[in-house]
Model the fold of this input.
Amino acid sequence: MTYCVRRLSTLLLNFKPSQSIPALRKYSSVSEDKLLYFAFRGRGEPIRIIYALAQVPLKDERVPISLDHWMNIKKDQPLGQLPVLTCSEGTLVQSKSIARYAAKKFGLAGKSIWEEALSDMIIETCDCSFGEIGAKIVPWKYLKSEPKPANHEQVLADVKEKIIQTIEFIQKGAEERGKRFIISDEISLGDVMFYSSLEVAAAVYPDLMKYNSWVEDFVLNFISDDRISKYLASRPQSQLPI
Ligand SMILES: N[C@@H](CCC(=O)N[C@@H](CS)C(=O)NCC(=O)O)C(=O)O
Done:
């Protein structure tokens, strides 16, 4: 009994809320979760980052960027697209659903319904603006699966304008809350989504990572987290700039 009390106090003394210890204890030794995604960051990276933050092993299977290879395995995917997460509960598709599932499982989705809602708002806002890079720019700029549109400069300018509106919107909310990260003093799903979106955007608009001092501080705080810096230093090279 004394041992248990002592052990409990040691655990409490070492407890770092950001690491969501109960979730870690439950999942770290038994996780067999597998993520199938392409060998670039794109829609898969927020999911990879969530596992890195939770310090839970993820079988990070990266499909090489080769049309032949992809066509061979596309038919085996539930919706013919990636990412696909396989875990003990079953198979999940849709990147945002997977990211939400993983974040909830590991206690990184927010500490209240309100914080979860704020994360959701950031996810959807990023998707509506940064997401346009995937829809309107990546096919001709990186995949060469479509010809460069005649009005490509206008497309680039319009998407950038939308992204800047998003950045300023997220910044305004974060400054009103006055926390270390966008929603709270701990990194949560909203931060992961915003950082991942900025990384993708930086391939097309390198100036955006330093858009203003708020963005610079956010990025610095985010990448200074030990779990994040370890992950960033060790992740495989992305086969595309996105
Ligand atoms: N709404 C889906 C979109 C998935 C999607 O567009 N995946 C792309 C890669 S980012 C893909 O698999 N492209 C190959 C194809 O459609 O054949 C999600 O968020 O997961």
Q: What stands out?
A: The longest strand covers residues 34-38. Residues 42-43, 74, 80-83, 94-96 surround glutathione (CB under 6 Å).
